[in-house]
């Protein structure tokens, strides 16, 4: 009898959960009530490490289903040696554990908000239903839970990330430590699975003299600078470490997946005496690899590169953040041109690998979005803090499009600093920059537009209706309202 | 004495906003692909807070359709930069000082002389001062055709109206480079039906200001930094308040809300130069006023019947 009652309760609870999550039952008042929440110690942690990261533990035994538990909570952690800081963390770590799955997998994330404020989890770059996007339209109040459910589409293998996206609070919550990586794998990986796979989540932060995370106070010059440039920190992190060490064997080739999870800092990356083979961007592998000396990653962008161990056994080199001028001259930091070290790459003493890996000339076929199919060109004029002279209004629809339509977006940056433009829900292909066609088709969800320049991309609104955000991915700008809403009907 | 102190304090301070930069020609060759306009008419659109404008235009007479598509009043001032200076020099060496000067007044309560002493502008800027006209303050939704004779060189365009938070629009991004090439346009100056002459203590207006659209020639005949702004006066409007509001270093100067509606005009020209602007007038009272020298009498109240 007890078993029967339990079964009935379980079924009702399950049905309620499904109805609640699919019907948008998690839509809560825009500004949730703040309340103090006790830190949860019941998070599921995984000891498994992939690409150098702890991985969210799959609690499902069903093939094709990745079911995980994720909790955001306040923690006290040591982010830099010698001090502890009050942070926000996913499952107790900064960055949060990695979500790993294959194309075609169904993802179920049981998320609990143990913060004292509302939050969301935005699955940056993934193509999924609107209600699962974790945009500001679907806040999760303090103490509440929500189950995110979505399927990873075929052709989307790549490197993504997750982070909060509550309106006006994203820079704060990401700055406090809420971000984590996602790897979507291709069952028919065109690159050998034997390549050492590393996920490098780059971030920066600022600390006060007591070791606490430092955010500018209102009505200060620093606040003005942060509002304009976005908040940058002088302490650079690769994953959870400052200047970590990776090893490579001479002649070896490693696959590095790099995420720029900083709120504002653009990373221009290089290793002295080394070239990269750039093989992928936001939405996965390119059609053709490109050999480059350095790579620029704006906020939110990802890159996949092959690192060739071309130095001698026993050598040591560093991955550097090279100077990158993304600022208006009036607001440019004094130390903007300083080279910063990110990571030590140490060559083992083993003799060079004898059989060198040859990078395939073709990695995959990327479908062409044809310009002649475009039914609309949307022009986005970006000034500091506004798009098309408007500040974000959650009650306003800025752009409307038909489901299935192909369109061109022209992003015009009218001011003297870079703005990385991000569209939710749909990967796009950049067509040209300043009227010059790009070298090849790539799937992207962030396009960085330097000051006074412009870029055009083409996008098709497949599968999902909804209200999709577009915004500057400098998180302070996004919070100021440099964001709009595209409704796909 | 009043005139002298004006020159000593107000004018040099005002000049901090009126910056010049000039760029060597090789800098032009090194720049990325531009939007180049060879049309008779170019468009410059003001939004909050940026200019949408071509990167490069031909030299000679240029007609500019100047529109405010923002939600706040804006102006457009062209500075021609000295030959050995770049737009980067203008924005990195001069504008932070201009901003500090303003913040000294706003946040530290400094008097103008104190602020000027504390925040020194680069020598090259003080020596240059080559403002080359532009659009007067214009309210959202208004358009004016401005016609200027621009020599080849590198120009900076800026708006130094303030945000509701008291920040200069230029500091928020409303500052942009414009290259004027050696290629000369075929544009001719328009036929004006109204002529304004600016001298150090007087604004003369010749012609009938009737309802409708007018093309106004503005001639800068003497000395100081004069410009023209067309202000619609309502019954409750105070000319004194308008003149005070137009002084950017007054604590409330150029800081919204504006005390009246601004319909455009002609920004500061070099002495001896003439520029043109259009304005559409409804019946009513207007003030034609110079921003920096209105307090010296360079203004005129007119009634359009």
Measured between the Cα atoms of the first and last residue of chain A, the distance is: 49 Å
Q: Give the rounded overall mean pLDDT of chain B.
A: 87
Shape category of chain A = globular
Helix content of chain B: 10-25%
Mean pLDDT of chain A: 91
Tally of domains of chain B:
2
User: Which pair of chains forms the biggest interface, and how many residues does each contribute?
Assistant: A-B, 25 and 27 residues
Evaluate the radius of gyration of chain B.
18 Å
**Unreliable residue stretches of chain A:** 1-42
**Main beta sheet of chain B, described?**
16 strands, mixed
CATH topology of the largest domain in chain A: Immunoglobulin-like
Rg of chain A to the nearest angstrom?
22 Å
CATH class of the largest domain in chain B: Mainly Beta
Oligomer: heterodimer
Q: Give the class of chain A from helix and strand content and strand pairing.
A: mainly beta
State the CATH topology of the largest domain in chain B.
Immunoglobulin-like
Biggest sheet layout of chain A: 6 strands, mixed
Give a count of the beta strands of chain B, DSSP E runs of length 2 or more. Answer: 16
CATH class of the largest domain in chain A: Mainly Beta
CATH homologous superfamily title of the largest domain in chain B: Cupredoxins -  blue copper proteins
| Number of structural domains of chain A | 3
